[in-house]
């Protein structure tokens, strides 16, 4: 049985809550290779691949032969666009590339469960009852963070749905990230030292990822 500390919106501890075993209590030893594979693919998919260099056909300059082939005593030469000359084109130019690799949903969800299990077993998962703001308030959000998790380290705040006021409240706080419950991924969890979920987000996580 895995439990997490439960707090109210004022940051006061009001008890503990049992975390769903199907998400927060899986085997974390055997899928380590899987976790590495999923995180590597996720980071690779963030690459834009928009870098480009000019080859000899893209370089500006005349295409005429600089001097005759024989009789000068020099090595034979082509145009000024040749890669061996200053301002010439690059010999093996790189072009825009799509680095995207689809991640199988089964692997992606299993990796997320492994990451959440690791944080839960270390006691780094917290639940906040009624985590919502009528209007953005960085001061109120910072007060909650300092009360719930005063330790140093990156925090991941998980909400249920598009809660713009809540998300904006945590945006300006250093080392605090936010995400929706149905959009969680293993990399964000591993990058964060502590995971803070709203009570509604915990239910959403169980609903989406327990299957």
Give your account of this protein's structure.
The protein has 211 residues and is α/β, with parallel strands linked by helices. It has two domains: 3-47 and 100-209, 3-Layer(aba) Sandwich (Ribosomal Protein L4, Chain: A), CATH 3.40.1370.10; 52-95, no CATH class. Helices cover 34% and strands 14% of the residues. The protein is built from seven helices and six strands. It has helices at residues 21-24, 32-45, 105-121, 138-148, 164-171, 186-191, 199-209, and strands at 3-7, 13-18, 125-128, 155-159, 176-180, 194-198. A six-stranded mixed β-sheet has the order 2-1-3-6-4-5. A hairpin with a 5-residue loop joins β1 (3-7) and β2 (13-18). α2 (32-45) crosses α3 and α4 crosses α5 (164-171). The longest helix is centred in the middle third of the chain and has 17 residues, at 105-121.
Please sum up the structure shown.
With 211 residues, the chain is α/β, with parallel strands linked by helices.
Features:
211 residues, 2 domains, 6-stranded mixed beta sheet, 7 helices, 6 strands, 34% helix, 14% strand
Quick one: CATH superfamily of the largest domain?
Answer: Ribosomal protein L4/L1
- Return the domain count: 2
Per CATH, the class of the largest domain reads Alpha Beta
Terminal Cα span = 19 Å
Query: Percentage of helical residues?
Result: 25-40%
Strand and helix map with partners:
Elements: E1 3-7, E2 13-18, H1 21-24, H2 32-45, H3 105-121, E3 125-128, H4 138-148, E4 155-159, H5 164-171, E5 176-180, H6 186-191, E6 194-198, H7 199-209
Parallel strand pairs: 1-3, 3-6, 4-5, 4-6
Antiparallel strand pairs: 1-2
């Amino acid at each position: 049985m895995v439990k997490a500390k439960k707090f109210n919106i004022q940051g006061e501890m009001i008890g503990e809550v049992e975390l769903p075993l199907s998400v927060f209590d899986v085997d974390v030893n055997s899928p380590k290779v899987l976790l590495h594979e999923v995180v590597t693919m996720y980071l690779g998919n963030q690459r834009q691949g928009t870098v480009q260099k000019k080859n000899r056909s893209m370089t500006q300059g005349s295409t005429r032969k600089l001097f005759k082939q024989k009789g000068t005593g020099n090595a034979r030469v082509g145009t000024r666009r040749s890669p061996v000359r200053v301002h010439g084109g690059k010999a093996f130019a790189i072009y825009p590339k799509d680095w995207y690799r689809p991640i199988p949903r089964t692997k992606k969800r299993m990796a997320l469960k492994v990451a959440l299990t690791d944080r839960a077993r270390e006691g780094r998962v917290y639940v906040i009852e009624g985590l919502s703001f009528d209007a953005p308030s960085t001061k109120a959000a910072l007060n909650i963070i300092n009360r719930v998790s005063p330790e140093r380290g990156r925090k991941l705040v998980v909400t249920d749905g598009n809660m713009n006021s809540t998300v904006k409240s945590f945006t300006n706080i250093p080392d605090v990230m936010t995400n929706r419950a149905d959009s969680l991924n293993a990399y964000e969890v591993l990058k964060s030292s502590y995971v803070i979920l709203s009570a509604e987000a915990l239910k959403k996580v169980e609903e989406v990822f327990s299957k």
